[in-house]
Design a protein that fits this description.
D-Maltodextrin-Binding Protein, domain 2, six-stranded mixed sheet, five-stranded mixed sheet, 12 helices
């Protein structure tokens, strides 16, 4: 809108204008009116388009989507993220780009997602540890609590947690490991992906339940614990089978037990630590989240793309090879699961004093 005042013509001046002058003024006024109308229309379209892009709208996605992983490259979460990104269907229309933001058991990555615009372009591949365990830990400041603080999108899969050791280690079963730990107090060092991660909780639960003297060695992600085990700096690691699969295949490591409550289909000969007296069992469930207040249509679009990705032949083959169990949950189901886990770990973390 033009806010400059128009000059006021006196009556004599108006009377002396020629017909040509009047026609020119009328023509200019008409052009100005058309331009103003066009500008208003463009502004309306821009406003609608801007709002649609900010909220995703029916045009989502219009550019690549970032998928934040809260751990270093090379770990199970990272591997899942990259496989999911590769298998996103073409009709999604855009690529998914994996971004690693490691630290604080996944909290740094989750915080980055929560601080992003709720437009569907910054997602987070989370796990039970980051979203249900870390909020209850003493001294840990997280910008979220339960599912009301973010938008659940889709549940993807879970990994059983296993204990892997050097192939030359003097124990082959959970009971062997526990017996050795009791007869060699303080000698065994077990690496995990960080304080408050699911493997760390599993280890602390075993130490408390069985009264064994084992040292926990937290790393910034599982990828860092693997070379530590291979180099002899630690005696074992608790992780997902995917973290150690290639080293088991090469003969450098062996998996001697799981923290699952039932046999793992791809590892039928691996016993559960329940056989050695551990009652705590947990599968590490992975899922995708978006910031709070992300529009429902954007959430649904990404949800559907993720469902198609994990149900693809390529992803199914990868999951089977890495002992992952695909278990899709939509946004509503995932929200219920996260609330259940959040409530459950309040007691567990309190009991362990983490």
């Amino acid at each position: 809108m033009n806010h400059h005042a128009s000059p006021i013509l006196t009556a004599p001046a108006r009377m002396t204008q020629t017909g040509a002058t009047l026609r020119r003024r009328i023509r200019h006024a008409a052009i100005a009116g058309i331009a103003a109308a066009a500008a208003l229309a463009l502004a309306a379209c821009s406003s609608t388009g801007s709002g649609g892009e900010a909220s995703g709208g029916s045009n989502y996605p219009q550019h690549p989507v970032q998928l934040i992983v809260g751990f270093a490259a090379g770990g199970a979460l990272d591997l899942v993220a990259r496989e999911v990104a590769k298998d996103i269907p073409q009709d999604f229309g855009q690529s998914v780009v994996v971004v690693n933001q490691a630290g604080d058991g996944g909290v740094i990555g989750a915080s980055a997602m929560l601080g992003a615009k709720p437009d569907g372009y910054t997602a987070y591949l989370g796990s039970v540890a980051a979203m249900a365990i870390q909020p209850w830990r003493e001294g840990v400041d997280v910008p979220y609590k339960g599912p009301d603080d973010y938008t659940p999108v889709a549940g993807l899969l879970y990994f059983p947690q296993v204990l892997a050791v050097s192939a030359s280690a003097p124990y082959d079963t959970p009971q062997d490991f526990v017996d050795y730990a009791k007869s060699h107090p303080g000698e065994i060092r077990v690496g995990t992906g960080g304080v408050g991660t699911l493997p760390d909780v599993a280890l602390q639960e075993m130490i408390q339940e069985l009264s064994v003297d084992i040292t926990s060695v937290p790393f910034q992600g599982f990828a860092q614990s693997v070379p530590a085990l291979l180099g002899g700096s630690i005696e074992a690691i608790i992780s997902s089978p995917a973290d150690v699969a290639q080293h088991v295949a090469s003969g450098d490591m062996k998996i001697i037990g799981s923290f699952n409550d039932k046999p793992i289909p791809s590892l039928p000969d691996v016993e559960s630590f329940t056989t050695a007296g551990v009652t705590y069992t947990q599968n590490n469930y992975y899922f995708v989240l978006l910031p709070k207040d992300t529009p429902a249509d954007v959430t649904e679009t990404l949800q559907d793309a993720l469902k198609a990705a994990i149900e693809s032949d390529s992803f199914t083959t990868w999951a089977e090879a890495n002992s992952a169990i695909v278990q899709y949950k939509d946004s509503s189901e995932l929200g219920e699961t996260l609330q259940t886990d959040y409530d459950r770990y309040k007691k567990i973390i309190g009991d362990l004093g983490l």
